[in-house]
Amino acid sequence: MVSEQPLVQARNLTKTYPPRGSTAEFRAVDGIDFALERGESFGLLGPNGAGKSTTMRMIAATSPISGGTLRVLGMDPMTQGPQIRARLGVVTQDDHLDNELTVRENLHIYGRYFGLPRAVIRERATRLLDFAQLQEKAGDQVETLSGGMRRRLTIARSLINEPDILLLDEPTTGLDPQARHILWDRLFQLKQEGVTLILTTHYMDEAEQLCDRLVVVDHGRIVAQGSPRDLIDRYATREVLELRFRLDERDTAAEKLRTSALATGSDGRVEPLPDRVLVYTADGEAALAAVHAMSLTPLTALVRRATLEDVFLNLTGRSLIE
């Protein structure tokens, strides 16, 4: 039996921008490989400027590739862009909604872009308003909606053509926790219905919640890939001990911990930060006991499980990239 072809496949995918003045050629995406299967929820993680959004634009057939190969739904974005875009749903960082139109009118107009019959648009719009929990707002102008409602409408609008793949570029940026969780519920429902998701996000808890598999990108290259659990097991310890010290004791305590067995042992490391010290360890309580045995008395001590954020910072560092 022949296995199904990947929905998206990239091999040595590259995106470069020509030099400007004395500036050398910029490689936004630098030879990455990945394959996406039908029904997956796939995440692209990385710092600002790492190449995530550029990769999404190439998948969406709105930015040409510079090198390597890319196939989306078995087609070449360089020559079959319109056919690919007709089968994609795209949620950009900005909503780009028509503020002066009503919620329902936004769905109807977007459906017309795909050439759908009016009867089909009416049926799908009613169903999508229910999905997005916007039935009671159907006749309201978009400019009256909250940020969370606007994002739900944007996602609903992206589904009007019943796409094979839904691209989401930082879908919950700027939303409050309640709105984020409602949006997560909607995306999880789509995943359960078999919609294939590709998303970028700066929220590591979001990636853990939504992604079956992800890649971490830094400086245009993939530095790690796997499921969230696999990456945590591979690049982080089981637990993290967070310690906070008095200001006049912080530097001395951090140096003592940095040179201790907690930092030099095979199953742990110590990372001093400006406001706290992180001890990565297999056993947080045992590590805390060792801290007290060194005659160190933190103001607060928290033992928590390692998360995808610990993996992300370990792989990409804590410096901002703009």
UniProtKB/TrEMBL annotation:
GO terms for molecular function: ATP binding; ATP hydrolysis activity. It holds the Pfam family ABC_tran. InterPro entries: AAA+_ATPase, ABC_transporter-like_ATP-bd, ABC_transporter-like_CS, ABC_transporter_ATP-binding, P-loop_NTPase. It is a peripheral membrane protein. Residues 8-244 form the ABC transporter domain. Its main location: membrane. PANTHER family: ABC TRANSPORTER ATP-BINDING PROTEIN, ABC TRANSPORTER ATP-BINDING PROTEIN NATA. Keywords: Antibiotic resistance, ATP-binding, Cell membrane, Membrane, Nucleotide-binding, Translocase, Transport. The keyword Cell membrane applies. It is found in: Cell membrane. Belongs to the ABC transporter superfamily. PROSITE patterns: ABC_TRANSPORTER_1, ABC_TRANSPORTER_2. GO terms for cellular component: plasma membrane. GO terms for biological process: response to antibiotic. This is Lipooligosaccharide transport system ATP-binding protein.
